[in-house]
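Key result, reporting period 2: structure in, sequence out.
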């Protein structure tokens, strides 16, 4: 069973493939299909709204069930920011390192280091059905980057005192916002596919 994953982010695609594979789902990217989804304007005010916008656009363009993720980091001392603007926090052309440095600079004299990651995932089917979940992972912002694993804000996000940048992919899957959301989506998808005889 083929699902289009509405992302060009190779890291996200790998995480989604790893958790969807046990359901017999062949997760493919737009690049795998030789298509471009174009720039989908994320006009939502929440992670869930933006994930739906992206999944809906991918489903309409390909005719395939589509899964999209919208995620980011929410820092207590920044009033929950950068939130849905995590990818554009330091400007459109900024690197992960630039974004991490900006958060560290903003928190340099701050003792409140609380933060959480949020991942919202939406699955849209060609018949109009949709499934949505949201997962979170609570931790804190480090004083400097640690590790060269993961991506995005992982080097400065501490979970149980350890940077996500130092987690193995398997360790991260067990506790991360996306791992938590995908397990919820995996359960919902399994129930949906069984109810709709998709396995037959």
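The corresponding designed sequence is given below.
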């Amino acid at each position: 069973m083929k699902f289009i994953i509405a992302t060009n982010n190779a890291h996200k695609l790998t995480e989604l493939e790893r958790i969807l594979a046990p359901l017999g789902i062949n997760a493919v990217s737009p690049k795998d299909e030789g298509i471009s989804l174009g720039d989908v304007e994320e006009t939502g005010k929440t992670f869930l709204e933006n994930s739906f916008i992206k999944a809906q656009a991918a489903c309409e363009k390909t005719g395939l069930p589509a899964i999209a993720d919208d995620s980011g980091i929410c820092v207590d001392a920044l009033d929950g920011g950068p939130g849905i603007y995590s990818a554009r926090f330091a400007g459109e052309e900024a690197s992960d390192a630039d974004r991490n440095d900006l958060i560290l600079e903003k928190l340099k004299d701050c003792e409140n280091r609380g933060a959480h990651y949020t991942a919202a995932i939406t699955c849209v089917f060609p018949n109009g059905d949709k499934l949505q979940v949201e997962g979170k992972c609570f931790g804190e912002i480090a004083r400097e980057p640690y590790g060269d694993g993961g991506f995005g804000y992982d080097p400065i996000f501490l979970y149980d005192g350890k940077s996500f940048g130092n987690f193995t992919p398997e360790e991260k899957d067990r506790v991360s916002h996306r791992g938590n959301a995908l397990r919820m989506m995996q359960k919902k998808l399994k129930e949906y596919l069984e109810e709709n005889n998709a396995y037959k």
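Residues 177-195 form the longest helix (19 residues). The domain at 2-195 is CATH 3.90.950.10 (Maf protein). This case is discussed further under Risks and Mitigation.
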